[in-house]
């Protein structure tokens, strides 16, 4: 339910002690009913975003970069970053992983330890995260190239719901040559850009202008986060094929995140506004490791909290 103040097209939405992606995104909930019933456990919302009930025994928090921001039961901003093809224990050093920074971030944030993919391969999970359906995609097809991508093209998605609710959005893609690009180029993979699979975005010049290159060292993205006037309620970042761990190893991706995430958490929006950061993975890369590293961080997140409830990509919508 949307309520409260609106500023420059933004609205505040109540945050319960449980998570529904972030409350500003509850406007998307009807999509799942309109497309298909998600498989597996669509559990109640994850208890990872809350300003109450913080664990008494927080994990080690050194070097993470989280700063305190405004508290309360409302928030306005969410940033989503999707990484690639790793199971949770390829990341967490506590169970054999090789990502010390992401481990420390999880220790100081809200971590879902039993969060799974909605389908395979990559594309289907990006569609699940933005339209609550895989549309039956079983390959990483280009937009409008087969039955499933045509179904996605004509579908309701997160952007249409946000726009209808008077909320703002913007997607940033590393290595993408031009706005709304639907062709692979270097370290840019169109399968990791769900926004160009939807006709009401890719076929709309105004909306296409909000699917942009992230800029050198993500500077376009970070500059927007450093200005409340320029930041959007919903911001999405797709790292390139090396930074997201798809083509490069965990150590490389962890080093990238150790440089990026503190800049996000120390941005003007995260220091002065009610904001949340979601980091998740699309799938495990076919390794048979069911659980994916999924963390909520920032001033609105529960710190040092772990949830062992079963969730998947549908659970964040």
What's this model, at a glance?
This protein is an alpha/beta fold and 317 residues long. The protein has a single domain, classed as 3-Layer(aba) Sandwich (Alkaline Phosphatase, subunit A), CATH 3.40.720.10. It is 25% helix and 15% strand.
Report on the structure:
This protein is α/β, with parallel strands linked by helices and 317 residues long. It has a single domain, classed as Alkaline Phosphatase, subunit A (3-Layer(aba) Sandwich), CATH 3.40.720.10. It has helices at residues 30-35, 88-91, 100-107, 122-131, 147-153, 158-164, 199-202, 205-208, 219-225, 250-265, 268-272; strands at 6-7, 10-11, 13-14, 74-75, 77-83, 110-112, 115-116, 169-173, 211-213, 234-238, 275-281, 294-297, 305-307, 311-312. The protein has an 8-stranded mixed sheet with strand order 9-8-10-5-11-12-6-13, with helices on both faces. The protein has a two-stranded antiparallel ribbon with strand order 1-2. The protein has a two-stranded antiparallel ribbon with strand order 3-4. A hairpin with a 2-residue loop joins strand 1 and strand 2 (10-11). The protein is globular, with a radius of gyration of 18 Å.
């Amino acid at each position: 339910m949307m309520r409260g103040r609106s500023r420059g097209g933004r609205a505040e939405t109540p945050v319960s002690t449980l998570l529904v992606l972030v409350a500003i995104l509850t406007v998307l909930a009807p999509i799942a009913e309109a497309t298909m019933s998600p498989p597996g456990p669509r559990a109640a919302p994850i208890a990872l975003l809350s300003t109450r009930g913080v664990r008494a025994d927080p994990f080690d928090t050194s070097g993470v970069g989280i700063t305190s921001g405004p508290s309360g039961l409302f928030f306005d901003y969410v940033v989503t970053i999707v990484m690639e093809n790793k199971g949770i224990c390829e990341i967490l050093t506590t169970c054999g992983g090789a990502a010390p920074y992401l481990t420390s971030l999880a220790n100081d944030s809200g971590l879902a330890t039993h969060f799974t993919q909605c389908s395979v391969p990559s594309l289907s999970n990006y569609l699940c995260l933005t339209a609550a359906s895989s549309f039956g995609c079983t390959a990483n097809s280009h937009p409008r190239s087969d039955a499933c991508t045509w179904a996605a093209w004509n579908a309701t998605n997160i952007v249409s719901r946000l726009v209808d609710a008077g909320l703002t959005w913007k997607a940033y893609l590393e290595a993408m040559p031009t706005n709304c690009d639907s062709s692979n180029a270097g370290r840019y993979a169109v399968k990791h850009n769900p926004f160009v699979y939807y006709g009401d975005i890719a076929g709309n010049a105004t909306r296409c202008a909000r699917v942009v290159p992230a800029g050198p060292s993500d500077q376009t993205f970070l500059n927007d986060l450093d200005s409340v006037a320029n930041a959007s309620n919903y911001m999405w970042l797709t790292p390139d094929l090396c930074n997201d761990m798809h083509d490069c190893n965990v150590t490389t991706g962890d080093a990238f995140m150790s440089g990026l995430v503190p800049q996000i958490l120390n941005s003007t929006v995260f220091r002065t506004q009610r904001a949340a950061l979601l980091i998740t993975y699309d799938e495990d890369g076919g390794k048979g490791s069911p659980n994916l590293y999924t963390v909520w961080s920032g001033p609105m997140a529960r710190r040092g909290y772990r949830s062992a409830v079963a969730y998947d990509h549908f659970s964040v919508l």
